């Protein structure tokens, strides 16, 4: 069964405040060396998906720089591979809107792909869904479309915007809604046969609709048979600064880290060659995730340090996320803080946020 992938960022809002001032949410750094887009791409790579379209509309320069030709995901191919498709269309007769505009104006991608089924994903839900197993489940069910959900025992604030999935005893969907008390959270992922996908796209455009999931699946005007696939592995929603901070620091739990970075489905990212981290005399690092290229002479506890971070003697980093090439000078203290790339905190400065509402500093700032 041949799969083709669509990673659709058109409907994703830039909700991470300072972290999305200069980049799309999918390009936000995560877990010391990755970007949020890496997880969806790596899942598709693990399933052998050879044609992947990335629909982007705004602030995609950082994504283009990160993705390049797609080599880390084995997508730099002569035929097929990764297609980053920003809005660039000039058809005066085009009446499409929303993400349907991407699909309509990039129809050549679908027509030329050898994939028989479309796997459609976003980037805000981090998971380890086995797309091969999903495709097998979908085919056996006889459904027109299969949506993926995760049962959440204790829904939190980041789950509030998510759709919920009502599932009958036969495994088919009986309703999709946004009732916050419901525990089956739709993780922004579905699979559908390509020919049916294209038919539904044309139908929605002809009827003045704008968004594929909302207008073809949620409203379901054509009476599609919708199956539900329950995913039971690692899952995190990154749709706010608070959810980003919480889910990042939860990776300091070895069990959760191993769930996300499992050996059977590795996560790939842009390769950067850095020297190993150097721990100088007096360095004290506890329960932290430290990428390579760092230089540490101070104290780091319960934190995540990206590549090339410098923590000078007498500085303290506590329960914080420090992105690439930041400098924490001597005597400075950060606690419950997120520093974006290339931030410099000068000597003896103190930044303290709240564990429920971390303090965020935009990239290239000097404090």
Automatic annotation (TrEMBL):
InterPro entries xref list: ADP-Glc_PPase, GlgDAde_trans, GlmU/GlgC-like_hexapep, NTP_transferase_dom, Nucleotide-diphossugar_trans, Trimer_LpxA-like_sf
SUPFAM superfamilies in alphabetical order: Nucleotide-diphospho-sugar transferases, Trimeric LpxA-like enzymes
Molecular function terms from GO: glucose-1-phosphate adenylyltransferase activity
Keyword Transferase found: yes
Record-linked Pfam families: Hexapep_GlmU, NTP_transferase
Domain Nucleotidyl transferase: 15-151
Family indicated by similarity: Belongs to the bacterial/plant glucose-1-phosphate adenylyltransferase family.
Name of protein: Glucose-1-phosphate adenylyltransferase subunit GlgD
Upper classification of the organism: Bacteria, Bacillati, Bacillota, Bacilli, Bacillales
Gene (UniProt): glgD
């Amino acid at each position: 069964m041949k799969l083709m992938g669509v990673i659709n960022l058109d409907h994703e809002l830039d909700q991470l405040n300072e972290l999305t001032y200069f980049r799309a949410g999918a390009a936000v750094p995560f877990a010391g060396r990755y970007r949020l887009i890496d997880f969806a791409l790596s899942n598709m790579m693990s399933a052998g998906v050879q044609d992947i379209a990335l629909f982007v509309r705004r602030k995609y320069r950082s994504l283009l720089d990160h993705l390049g030709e797609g080599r880390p995901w084995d997508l730099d191919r002569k035929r097929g591979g990764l297609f980053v498709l920003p809005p660039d269309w000039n058809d005066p007769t085009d009446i499409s809107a929303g993400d349907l505009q991407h699909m309509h104006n990039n129809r050549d991608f679908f027509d030329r792909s050898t994939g028989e089924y479309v796997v459609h994903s976003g980037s805000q839900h981090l998971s380890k869904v086995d797309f091969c197993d999903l495709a097998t489940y979908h085919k056996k069910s006889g459904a027109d479309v299969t949506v993926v959900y995760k049962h959440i025992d204790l829904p939190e604030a980041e789950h509030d915007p998510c759709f919920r999935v009502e599932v009958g005893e036969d495994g088919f969907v009986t309703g999709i809604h946004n009732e916050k008390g419901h525990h089956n959270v739709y993780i922004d992922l579905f699979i559908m046969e390509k020919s049916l996908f294209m038919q539904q796209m044309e139908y929605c455009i002809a009827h003045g609709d704008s968004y594929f999931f909302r207008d073809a699946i949620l409203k379901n005007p054509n009476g599609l048979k919708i199956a539900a696939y329950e995913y039971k592995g690692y899952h995190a929603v990154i749709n706010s600064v608070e959810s980003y901070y919480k889910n990042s620091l939860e990776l300091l739990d070895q069990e959760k880290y191993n769930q996300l970075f499992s050996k059977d489905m590795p996560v790939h990212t842009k390769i950067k060659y850095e020297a190993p981290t150097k721990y100088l005399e007096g360095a004290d690092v506890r329960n932290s995730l430290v990428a390579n290229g760092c230089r540490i002479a101070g104290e780091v506890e319960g934190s995540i340090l990206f590549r090339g971070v410098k923590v000078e003697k007498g500085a303290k980093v506590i329960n914080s996320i420090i992105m690439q090439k930041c400098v924490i000078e001597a005597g400075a203290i950060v606690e419950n803080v997120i520093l974006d790339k290339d931030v410099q905190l000068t000597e003896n400065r103190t930044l303290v946020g709240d564990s429920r509402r971390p303090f965020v500093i935009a990239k290239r700032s000097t404090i």
